[in-house]
């Protein structure tokens, strides 16, 4: 295991977390290289029975430049949703042919840049996007390889804010309209439409919704072929969940691989997969220090130096992250709130919960924070962007420095507010 207690101190691989805190300060994300390798290997092994496939890392989960080349070494390309993620994938050594551009709000400028980069394919979300992509490709004398994203109208049985296939979802073409839309887009001159894409949500641990979505996708593949379309690819998305609570199950990736092999038998397509969270969530923790323990009724407040701007998931959707003391007092626990210093009541990591007893100055971690942690961080309250560190065996290094808000987002006053080097009076 990459995170374990040794001699009463929590280690990341061979490095005690207090050593990292002394060197880099807190709060800080700390990633374990071995945990990333292990997750990637388990996913690759689970999909081994599927001969024709393309593995794509969902860059949005964590775009750190150490992750992309590591996963490329396991055969992963990249699933991107913005021009910035295109740059991250290219900087990480991902070949253009191994990049798929997904996402609902692609701009014309981004689509043009992605076409110019020669990426593998687009996942088209709606008719107008397909029309614009066709025009951009025609203007370049090329055809854009693409898949049509379909909303199979299957409840992923996960949190509403990370479900993407409900009836009111903004993503994809609703299942009843999919065949008609495919006919329409396939006729456009600038598109090389090759098949379908589905993605029903994130943090999925029960495989039955995925199975239902894939069955619906298989029905569409057969129907489109009957209508004369050449279907060569199907993107089955990502969404496999991990265990965030002690004792709670994550997705069984081996069972998922076996299920996919059964459900897609006879499709005669190349299958695409887009894991994100599954690969990186358990490779990272957010290291934090207790600032104060404030008395409260009936429970005290453990105030830490990490905040919702560093790890937004609990504030966004009440996500659970285990709170673990770096030097736990033997068998001592108490019920407490764990909160950050940001001036929002929502800046809370745990409502009254039994946690390791901690005191002012103690170190602790918020576990399973490698996905959608640093990737979603902000400078709210003019707080610095959190730093990131990597551990590999007995060595560690800084992967990104703590960046003051003024540097992360440089701002300046309007020209008319400064006269001869002096700030003009407000209101003039």
From TrEMBL:
Keywords: Amino-acid biosynthesis, Decarboxylase, Lyase, Lysine biosynthesis, Pyridoxal phosphate. Residues 41-281 form the Orn/DAP/Arg decarboxylase 2 N-terminal domain. GO terms for biological process: lysine biosynthetic process via diaminopimelate. Specifically catalyzes the decarboxylation of meso-diaminopimelate (meso-DAP) to L-lysine. Substrate binds at residues 277, 313, 317, 344, 372. Pathway: Amino-acid biosynthesis; L-lysine biosynthesis via DAP pathway; L-lysine from DL-2,6-diaminopimelate: step 1/1. Pfam families: Orn_Arg_deC_N. Homodimer. Coiled coil: none annotated. The active site is at 343 (proton donor). GO terms for molecular function: diaminopimelate decarboxylase activity; pyridoxal phosphate binding. Belongs to the Orn/Lys/Arg decarboxylase class-II family. LysA subfamily. This is Diaminopimelate decarboxylase. Its EC number is 4.1.1.20. It catalyses: meso-2,6-diaminopimelate + H(+) = L-lysine + CO2. The modification N6-(pyridoxal phosphate)lysine is found at residue 60. InterPro entries: Ala_racemase/Decarboxylase_C (IPR009006), DAP_deCOOHase_LysA (IPR002986), De-COase2_N (IPR022644), De-COase2_pyr-phos_BS (IPR022653), Orn/DAP/Arg_de-COase (IPR000183), PLP-binding_barrel (IPR029066). It is an enzyme of class 4 (lyase). Transmembrane segments: none annotated. Pyridoxal 5'-phosphate binds at residues 239, 274-277, 372. Its cofactor is pyridoxal 5'-phosphate.
